[in-house]
Amino acid sequence: MRELSTSGPGDTGMARRDFVTSGIVILAAGMAGLGGTGALVGCTQVALSDKSAVVADEAAEAGHWGLVIDVAKLNAEGNFGRIKAACHQKHNVPLIHDAKTEVKWIWAESFEHSFIDLENTYMNKSIKDLEFPMLCNHCENPVCVRVCPTQATFQRPDGIVDMDYHRCIGCRFCMTGCPFNARSLNFYDPRPYIGEVDPGYPTRTKGVVEKCNFCVERLKQGLAPYCVEESNGSFVFGDLDDPGSDVRKALETGFSIRRRVSLGTGPSVYYLVEGGEPDA
Amino acid sequence: MYKGARVLAFLLVFLSIVTAPLFLNWGKTTAAPEITVDKQAAGRVSGQGGAVACVEPVEIMSSEHMQLLGSWRDLVVREGKTHYVSSDGRMFEMSLDDSCLSCHSNREEFCDSCHEYMSVEPSCWNCHDGAQTIGGE
User: Fold this and answer.
1) Residue B1 placed within a domain
2) How many domains, in total, are found in chain B?
3) Where are the domains of chain A?
4) What is the 3-state secondary structure (H, E, C) of chain B?
5) Whose C-alpha in A21, A128, B29, B93 is 20 to 30 A from the C-alpha of B14?
6) Per the domain annotation, does B126 fall within a domain?
7) Domain A65-272 has what CATH class?
8) Residue B108 lies in a domain
9) Could you tell me which residues come within 8 angstroms of residue A51 by beta carbon, excluding any fewer than 6 positions away?
10) Nearest by CB to A92, which of B71, B130, B132?
11) Residue B68 is nearest to which of A48, A92, A220, comparing CB atoms?
């Protein structure tokens, strides 16, 4: 065994006190250097974020956006295919022919599949046979927002439950939480499944969840959602908080139902089952 | 030194592995790409024929466009803001597709060449500029 150095402070030329002091000085100098760069980084960030970002004047705003669907009118018009096509094409939703991995923002279901808690053994055939459009309900108490670990999905002050695709990690908690099956995961790179990419809206990427966004990109320009535009009046969109709004007026005209209200999520999509005009 | 020969031998091996990239790429330095601006597209955007100045001064844009785009992303997606007022008071729509790429329509020369040179792979194009990305491939 070699002898460990046992030389004391006295015979190395540096006293223990000097050694400790110089250590502290070096450490302090290092910290100061770090602090200096930190301040520099802080400065440049302020230089950029100092600018005011503004909302355009033409943006449509509301306290609580809601959608009322006159189901009888929609079925009479028979234009749901056009509505779905417009929504999916404009938002670059991939077309995948596999029920397990398909991506959908709006789709049609029968009464018994959409209102499972309202279905009765014997009921009016004309209602039973109606096609009900399904989409994200933009709930008042959205489960998806509560369970999202990255806050990729969030509720805007106007009630819209929006997605920040940049933050989505594809964990699918939101899909499990959503009682309406309104969310789809991109199991594949969606781009090969998009016929023609619309440059007006970004595509998504593999491993990202997507859903209806009430056309927030159009509301910014003061325009109604695509489904409303294509619906020929059977979809009514507006502010549920405003008693004079189109949606509130439409809700006055007949009996409306929402999906799975007993769960307490507070859907913002209403279905008028009796049409606006008395039955002819 | 205890087992000095072995220590030195493995030290040599360690150092040669760590510094390998340096020696392997010795003398292979390539010139930084020349960034070109699509003058025609820029002129179309400005509406005056000549190129319009970028959102912020060029030095800031070249060193901090990622921070700017990151803050735009959060402002637009999460806060619902739409427009940005630059330091010299001009207003721009905060949109990578509609604002940035309408001027810098030559993405391959303007964005990709430099990103390739710097060996960074931004994930912007996974979703944005879809029509051109798919068309170009």
Assistant:
1) no
2) 1
3) 65-272
4) CCCHHHHHHHHHHHHHHHCHHHHHCCCCCCCCCCCCCCHHHHHHHHCCCCCCCCCCCHHHHHHHHHHHHHHHHHHHHCCCCCEEECCCCCEEECCHHHHHHHHCCCHHHHHHHHHHHHCCCCCHHHCCCHHHHHHHC
5) B29
6) yes
7) alpha beta
8) yes
9) B84, B85, B86, B87
10) B130
11) A48
Residue with tokens 């859907």: A267
Interface of B with A (CB under 8 A): 2, 56, 60, 64, 67-68, 71-73, 75, 77-87, 91, 93-94, 97, 123, 126-134
Let me know how long chain A is.
Answer: 280
- Overall average pLDDT of the B41-50 stretch: 65
Inter-chain touch B82–A59, beta carbons under 8 Å = yes
The string of pLDDT tens digits covering residues A57-76 is: 778 888 999 999 999 999 99
The tens digit of pLDDT for each residue in A202-224 reads 999 999 999 999 999 999 999 99
Nearest CA to CA, how far is B60 from chain A (Å)? Answer: 9
Residue A273 phi, psi dihedral angles, 5° rounding = -90, -25
Gap between the Cα atoms of A9 and A18, Å rounded: 10
ipTM, two decimals, is 0.77
